[in-house]
Amino acid sequence: MNTTLLLVQTLNGLQLGVILFLVAAGLTLVFGVMDFINLAHGVQYMLGAYLTATAVAWTDHFGLGLALGMLATLAAGFVLEILVYRHLTGRDHLEQVLATFGLILFMTEGVKMVFGASPIAMRTPEILSGSVVLMPGLLYPVWRIAIIASGLGVALLLWLLVARTRIGMLVRAGSTHAPIVSALGVDIDRLFMIVFAFGAMLAGFAGSMAAPILSVEPNMGDGVLILAFVVIVIGGIGSIRGAFLAALLVGLVDTLGRAFMTDILKLFFANSSAAKAGPALASMLIYVVMALILFFRPQGLFPAERR
C-alpha cells in the first residue's frame, strides 16, 4: 500500500465527508425537528450548484457569485417551504415521501428546461486554483483543501448556533416539545420555516463547493442524497454532532474502500477473484458499516437527546 496514495485518499475522504455533512446537517435538522422526510433535499444541493454557477458566470467573481447563489438558494428554500412543505408537515410519512419524490421530478425537469440537460462547468477562483505541496513529491489541489476547511468552519459555526444561541435553544426544544414551545408564545411554524430554509442553504452551499470538481447537472443530487440518509441513520436522527462524525466516517470508508479494497482482498484471495470482488464489495462497504452500527446501536452513534 503506497503511503502517498493513502494520504491523498484520506484527504479525499475528508473532503467527501464534509460535503456529506453540509447536506446531512440540514436533512437531520428537518427530520429531527419537523419529523419530516424530505426526499427532495438532494434537489436543493443541485439547485445551489446551478444558482451559484450562474451567478459566478454573471458577475465574473467567485466570492460575489457564491454569496448571490446562497441568497438565492435560501430564498428558494423559503418559497418551497411556504408553497409545498408547510402543507405536508404533520402528515403521514408515506405522503411526505410521495410528495417530495414528485417534487424531485418537477424540479429536475424544470432545471432542464431553464439550464438545459447538458452538464455545465464552474471554474475555481483564481486564488484557490493550482496545487500545494503537502510533502516531497505530493501535490494536492488547493480547492479540495478549501472544501475541507470551509466544511469544518461551517460545522463549528453550526454547533455554536445550535448549542449556544437562543434560536438554537428553540430548535432543540421544538424538536422534542413542539406543543409546549408553541404554548409559550413561539411561532413554531416560523421556526420550522427558518430551519428548513437554512437546511436548504447548507445543501446548496455543499453543491456550490462541489461544483468546480464535479459537473453541474440535473441529477447530481441523487447519489449525495442516498449517502446523506446513510449519514443521519449512522449518526443519529436530529444530532448535528452525530451527522458530522458519521459524515467523516462514511466519506473515509467509501473513499478508502474504493481505493484499497481490491489490494486488501489480494492478500487473501487470488488476484482474479480479488479484482472481481473488490469493486463490488467497496461499493457496498458503507451499507455494511451502517448495518453493523445499527445492530449494536439502533438509535445511531450519537442520537439527539430527548428529555
TrEMBL record:
GO annotation (BP), single: amino acid transport
Major location (coarse): membrane
Signal sequence segment: none
Protein's membrane topology: Multi-pass membrane protein
A single GO molecular function term of this UniProt record: transmembrane transporter activity
Keywords: Amino-acid transport, Cell membrane, Membrane, Transmembrane, Transmembrane helix, Transport
One cellular component (GO) term of this entry: plasma membrane
Subcellular location: Cell membrane
Stretches that traverse the bilayer: 12-32, 39-58, 64-85, 97-122, 142-162, 191-214, 226-253, 274-296
Family statement drawn from the similarity comment of this UniProt entry: Belongs to the binding-protein-dependent transport system permease family. LivHM subfamily.
Protein name: ABC transporter permease
Organism of derivation: Prosthecodimorpha hirschii
Lineage: Bacteria, Pseudomonadati, Pseudomonadota, Alphaproteobacteria, Hyphomicrobiales
